[in-house]
Design a protein that fits this description.
The structure is a single chain. The chain contains one helix and no strands. The protein is mainly α.
């Protein structure tokens, strides 16, 4: 194996490793987003009315 083909194969391996790291990071972000969506749908993340004014969110008329 000549020197140029060895250098080329090392650069290709380095590029593949970089692509694998990027793919892993994207998969983790996607999993975190999916987890957040599921928790929201299941009611795990409940909203708080602690920072709103008096009388806000107390009564809801759904007869209309």
């Amino acid at each position: 194996m000549d020197m140029m083909s060895m250098v080329t194969s090392l650069l290709a391996a380095k590029a593949a490793g970089t692509r694998m790291q990027a793919a892993t990071a994207m998969m983790k972000q996607n999993a975190d987003a999916e987890r957040s969506a599921v928790l929201t749908l299941l009611g795990g993340a409940q909203s708080s009315l602690a920072n709103v004014g008096a009388g806000i969110g107390g009564n809801l008329d759904v007869t209309a």
